[in-house]
Design brief:
The complex is a heterodimer of chains A (about 775) and B (about 325). Chain A is of the alpha+beta class. Chain A folds into three domains: about 150 residues, Aldehyde oxidase/xanthine dehydrogenase, molybdopterin binding domain (Aldehyde Oxidoreductase, domain 4), CATH 3.30.365; about 200 residues, Aldehyde oxidase/xanthine dehydrogenase, molybdopterin binding domain (Aldehyde Oxidoreductase, domain 4, 2-Layer Sandwich); about 220 residues, Aldehyde oxidase/xanthine dehydrogenase, molybdopterin binding domain (Aldehyde Oxidoreductase, domain 4, 2-Layer Sandwich), CATH 3.30.365.10. In chain A, about 25% of the residues lie in helices and about 25% in strands. Chain A is built from 19 helices and 32 strands. Chain A has a seven-stranded mixed beta sheet, sandwiched between helices. In chain A, strands 7, 10, 11, 16, 17 and 18 form a six-stranded mixed beta sheet that branches. A five-stranded mixed beta sheet of chain A has the order 20-21-30-31-32, sandwiched between helices. In chain A, β13, α5 and β14 form a beta-alpha-beta unit. In chain A, α12 runs parallel beside α13. Among the domains of chain B are: about 45 residues, 2-Layer Sandwich (Uridine Diphospho-n-acetylenolpyruvylglucosamine Reductase, domain 2); about 100 residues, Enolase-like, domain 1. Chain B has about 325 residues and is of the alpha+beta class. The radius of gyration of chain B is 19 Å and the shape is globular. Chain B has 13 helices and twelve strands. Classes of the chains: A alpha+beta (about 775), B alpha+beta (about 325). Chain A: This is Xanthine dehydrogenase family protein molybdopterin-binding subunit. Chain A: InterPro entries: Ald_Oxase/Xan_DH_a/b, Ald_Oxase/Xan_DH_a/b_sf, Ald_Oxase/xanthine_DH-like, AldOxase/xan_DH_MoCoBD1, AldOxase/xan_DH_MoCoBD2, AldOxase/xan_DH_Mopterin-bd_sf. Chain A: Keywords: Molybdenum, Oxidoreductase.
Chain lengths: ~775, ~325
């Protein structure tokens, strides 16, 4: 369609895009009709696999006594490293982005007798029922000769190193200007250290894979994945199949938060086992296994040196991060990214330090890098404001980045000033006492805090297909995933407006590799990419209909130039004379067309207003967007009550204002923002996975003991959006909202705690123990 | 989880007789602790004896005080007007515990027998002296941030009873009625019901094999009517206490006539502090008195690497609770 004329924005005003509509899949979910990946229970001969994990974190399997387990009723097979069928290909390194496949780590268990982390699968039991598998697993005796593990980067036996790159692309050391020298000569110097505990994603739905070999060369996998096509590609490679021989289905997902963005061992085990026992196999991780089965957000310490003028202008940022990675990968969250780009600072230096330890490879967790990075920069900015007696917002405006400081490029759009202003207004920021530790309510200290949020618009691409029937119904398809966040809903809205049809006439299908390929739902890319491909595919439908109409002598549009025709509410009509036109049904009827199909690629890059795009309709080339930096921005505002005797912190008010391009559905977008904020409040106040310092095994891998926020921890939350018309990010002008919502949250809470108490807690989560300890520190 | 058989008992006699036939059987009431333990392979009873049909769910005023049947549900007891009015600490301890769903299921007797949340006990992959006597206690040098500082031993530092109700009951001199396999009943003050770990942390109560808790009786008293339960935890709901205090005061003319103090979250068992009570009685109901009592209550604390904060936290919790009932 490169050479075709492109319509301008056909989204009718007002249409359903931008309306706060309820989820189209809500009814199916609350009535139990929505089928999740572990609910395909009617497959013929379905059997159940249960992983048996290693008790110890390091060692060698010396013997396996499977006798008693094998004799249990219903047991079909027990696999260990001694008899597990071999993989066609080992998993790729997740750093190797060229491979385009998506293993969570390059290590695959059960290939040797070596044990590298607690919970590593050392056996799998397959039985005719889950209960039989559980009973047998309890009787399996795996003897492991333990060795002394490295529990984290903090352990005495840990060896720190600076990697060449992290995640395969971010350099271990980044320098922009001479930050060290600029810091040394800065009139104002702040140095602070920030600590993050290990945390886990803990989606409600655990990792689950059901594998069904429908023929020796035809595998169907129902998996909990954020990306069906990435899982398809990875499974095909590791199982020695062609890609068309693997079908991956994920119709509904109970949350992912990054852990389901990668292919972990259980996903590969299920089809291996199914092939070996000759029956479909369902493998669901238990909740404790969820903590050792799908990655983690690594524990980390950051030191940030901030140099500024006496007026508060930033001169230097020097950032160091030390964190734990697995024995195999140089994996770390890219914290430096946000610290480098958030403010107009002339110099930056960032260094990553890692230690290999006996844990699995960490992985992407909601806003990887930007979330913990924002804790460091946004707390340090708060420190600087306090030291210079500036309002925290004033300091941020003083350092406002009018262009991207890392590239010098203009922003595709940036409405951060408006976010600050609107947030301050909604929150009542002007009531903030400029002095910290001064506001009491009974036993409680009251504090206000705020922080900036930002998240990049990542590159991605994918195809959607639209089939419009002459009866006015349409099927819209893309192999996308709905994490539970609204992908079904927003794309139904976009297609309805773009086709000029009511929403109930649109059926949007996703989550199946039989559908057009689109990338994962990760990095906040899905809303922009999928909606753009849907929008463009709908445009192609009109293009085809228009071609038919202008050569149809019976059409009122006969002989019209395509560029003179517009689409309005499902009708093709002359721009100059809207009365002259007709509906698609008439065109299709006369041409004996039962349906018309359109298909298009939605992509990062130029949107519908970029000059090149409107000229030739190829609105998706990245170079069309250059030279622009693309980010969503926002601000969080928080009030806390701190009990200085009991050490408890409660968030009592919350305001988030986000600018993220076009908001397709303010209701689902609001849910994303409150979800991310609650996730962040959890990280700020309570979430931590504790690894025993000697045995390197988690001590609280349950949802009773790993605390996520309850309703009682969360006040009513106010969310607002600053409308943006971004002509560059993608065809729909959507930046995505899933991850920015958590960025800055921990800092907003910590800044409020500082404002309440006059003391800063720099170690997360801010449990009563840590709050009490901080309050005892000398001022 | 293992396969098990399931039987129902209609009376205490029938239940204890069934237990005599299968000594490794477990009584099943609300199941909120037991089923968790079974699913984690920490308990593997060959038989569950369902005691829910037993007529033990009544809550009634008796000459000895309020008698609560062991099968009454946490939510029913917590919301009962006699409990709310006469024993606010008991009501609060119940309603601040667990979640509504769990409170609707869990029985009073089962609550008193819940097991520790110590992560080393709850995960069979770890050594644990309580679970496997003699295997060791990695918690002492490991993750002990929410473990006990009072009544602990070289063998075990778990807060064996992690909950709330028994703390309030310990403060208010509750007495348990137990029935053994011979059908004989005996009465044990709750303060003598739990055992400290010593060298045998696997032995947590004085219950004999097969013996059933049938009732809890709480004497009426002015300090019981003027009581409260304060719980400090890492989130606002559905979490075990880092520290908690159950206190009852009888204050007349500004002077404390009677005092009851028990602490939760910090003791190897629910921690009645007669030391604190001694400091309080006869003294003015002032912050200075409360502080002195709190210091006395924590005098024997033995904190580990990660839980020293509990000394201060428990003291502050106790002082706050005393302030609340004295106000």
């Amino acid at each position: 369609m490169d050479t075709e004329t492109q319509f301008s924005d056909t989204i009718p005003q007002p249409g359903v895009v931008g309306q706060p509509l309820s989820r189209v899949d809500g009814w199916a979910k609350v009535t139990g009709q929505a089928k999740y990946s572990a609910e395909y229970n009617r497959l013929p001969g379905l059997s159940y696999a249960l992983i048996v994990g290693s008790d110890v974190a390091k060692g060698r399997v010396t013997s396996i006594d499977a006798g008693a387990a094998q004799r249990q009723p219903g047991v079909l097979a027990i696999f260990t490293h001694q008899n597990l069928p071999k993989l066609a290909k080992s998993p790729n390194n997740p750093d190797d982005r060229r491979a385009l496949a998506s293993s969570g780590m390059s290590f695959f268990p059960l290939e040797s007798d070596q044990v590298y982390y607690a919970g590593q699968p050392v056996a799998v039991v397959v039985a005719d029922t889950l209960e039989h598998a559980q009973a047998a697993a309890a009787l399996l005796r795996v003897s492991i000769a333990p060795e002394v593990p490295v529990s984290s980067y903090e352990a005495k036996n840990a060896e720190l190193y600076v990697p060449k790159t992290i995640r395969g692309y971010a350099p271990g050391v980044t320098k922009r200007g001479e930050a060290q020298a600029a810091f040394a000569s800065a009139p104002v110097q702040l140095t602070a250290t920030y600590v993050h505990a290990t945390t886990h994603h803990n989606p409600m739905e655990p990792g689950a894979t059901t594998a069904h070999w429908e023929a020796p060369d035809r595998l169907t996998v129902y998996d909990t994945t954020q990306g069906v096509s990435e899982t398809q590609k990875t499974l095909a490679a590791m199982l020695g199949l062609a890609q068309d021989q693997v079908r991956v289905i994920t119709k509904y997902l109970g949350g992912g938060f990054g852990c389901k963005a990668w292919v972990w061992p259980h996903v590969v085990l299920a089809p291996l086992l199914a092939k070996a026992v000759g029956r479909p196999v369902k493998l669901v991780l238990t909740r404790p296994q969820q903590f050792t089965g799908m990655g983690l957000r690594e524990e980390q310490t950051q030191t940030l040196k901030l140099g500024a003028t006496r007026e508060g202008k930033l001169l230097a940022l020097v950032h160091e991060k030390t964190s734990t990675t697995s024995p195999w990968e140089d994996w770390a969250e890219t914290n430096g990214r946000i610290i480098n780009m958030l403010y107009a600072c002339p110099t930056f230096e960032g260094t990553y330090r890692l230690a290999h330890a006996n844990v699995m490879t960490p992985t992407s967790t909601r806003a990887p890098g930007d979330m913990p990075g924002s804790f460091a920069i946004e707390c340090s900015m708060d420190d600087l404001a306090a030291q210079l007696n500036l309002d925290p917002i004033q300091l941020r405006l003083l350092n406002y980045a009018e262009v991207d400081p890392t590239t010098g490029h203009a922003w595709s759009s940036k409405s951060l000033k408006e976010c600050y202003a609107r947030g301050a207004e909604l929150f009542g920021w002007n009531r903030r006492n400029p002095k910290a530790g001064q506001t009491r309510e009974g036993h409680l200290l009251v504090g206000y805090g705020m922080a900036t949020a930002s998240y990049p618009v990542h590159g991605s691409q994918g195809t959607a297909r639209v089939r419009l029937y002459a009866d006015g119904h349409a099927v819209v398809q893309a192999g996308a995933t709905d994490l539970g966040t609204g992908t079904y809903t927003i794309n139904t809205q976009v297609a309805a407006d773009a086709l000029g049809l009511p929403m109930q006439n649109i059926r949007f299908e996703l989550g199946d590799t039989n559908l057009p390929t689109t990338q994962w739902s990760g990095g906040s890319t899905a809303a922009g990419r999928v909606s753009s491909s849907v929008y463009l595919a709908c445009q192609e439908v009109w293009q085809k209909l228009l071609k038919v109409a202008v050569i149809d002598k019976k059409s009122p549009l006969y002989g019209a130039k395509p560029e003179d025709v517009a689409v309005e509410k499902g009708r093709l009509q002359l721009k100059a004379n809207p009365a002259k036109g007709e509906g698609y049904a008439d065109i299709m009827q006369r041409a004996s067309l039962s349906d018309v199909e359109g298909s298009a690629l939605g992509k990062y890059g130029a949107g519908y207003e970029a000059p090149k795009a409107t000229a030739n309709a190829n609105m998706n080339k990245k170079e069309d967007a250059a030279p622009h930096s693309m980010h969503a921005f926002g601000a969080h505002f928080c009030e806390v009550h701190v009990d200085p005797e009991l050490g408890t912190v409660r968030v009592t008010r919350w305001v988030s204002v986000m600018s993220a391009g076009r908001i397709l559905n303010p209701k689902t977008a609001r849910s994303q923002v409150i979800g991310g904020s609650i996730f962040g409040i959890g990280a700020a106040l309570m979430e931590q996975t504790v690894r025993d310092p000697h045995l390197a095994r988690y001590t609280n891998a349950t949802l009773a003991d790993y605390h996520v926020c309850t309703n009682a921890d969360i006040p009513n939350m106010t969310v607002d959006f600053i409308d943006e018309h971004d002509p560059y990010v993608n065809a729909m002008g959507v930046k995505g909202i899933g991850e920015i919502s958590i960025v800055g949250v921990t800092a907003a809470v910590a800044n409020a705690v500082y404002h309440a108490t006059g003391k800063r807690v720099r170690s997360l989560p801010m449990t009563p123990a840590r709050v009490l300890a901080t309050l005892h520190e000398p001022a | 989880m293992n396969d098990f058989s399931y039987v129902q008992a209609a009376s205490a006699k029938e239940a204890t007789t069934l237990h005599k036939d299968t000594p490794a059987a477990a009584y099943y009431a609300g199941g909120t602790t037991l089923l968790d333990l079974m699913k984690s392979n920490l308990a593997a009873p060959p038989q569950l004896i369902d005691i829910n049909p037993l007529p033990l769910a009544t809550i009634e005023q008796t000459s000895e005080g309020l008698r609560i049947g062991a099968l009454a549900r946490m939510s029913d007891v917590g919301e009962h007007p006699l409990v709310v009015q006469g024993y606010p600490a008991v009501s609060q301890s119940l309603l601040l515990a667990a979640s509504p769903q769990l409170r609707n299921m869990a029985s009073i007797g089962g609550n008193l027998l819940q097991r520790t949340r110590c992560g080393y006990f709850r995960d069979a992959a770890f050594p644990c002296n309580k679970r496997v006597p003699g295997s060791g206690c990695p918690a002492i040098a490991g993750d002990n941030h929410n473990l006990a500082i009072l009544g602990v031993s070289e063998s075990c530092i778990a807060n064996a009873y992690p909950g709330d109700l028994a703390v309030a009951l310990a403060a208010l001199d509750a007495v348990l009625t137990l029935e053994n396999q011979k059908g004989k009943q005996r009465r044990v003050p709750i303060t003598e019901f739990y055992l400290l770990p010593g060298k045998t942390p696997q032995k947590e109560t004085v219950l004999e094999p097969g013996e059933l808790i049938v009732a809890v009786t709480i004497p009426a008293a002015a300090h019981a009517r003027q009581s409260t339960y304060l719980k400090v935890r890492e989130r606002a709901s559905y979490a075990y206490a880092l520290a908690s205090a159950a206190v009852g005061l009888d204050v007349q003319g500004g002077t404390i006539r009677a005092a009851r103090v028990a602490l939760g979250g910090v003791g190897a068992q629910p921690w009645r502090s007669r030391e604190a009570e001694k400091v309080l009685v006869g003294q003015p109901a002032s912050e200075a008195t409360f502080r002195a009592a709190a210091a006395a209550a924590l005098r024997g604390a033995r904190p580990q690497s990660e839980n020293a904060y509990k000394v201060e936290l428990a003291q502050n919790t106790l002082v706050r609770a005393l302030q609340q009932v004295a106000a």
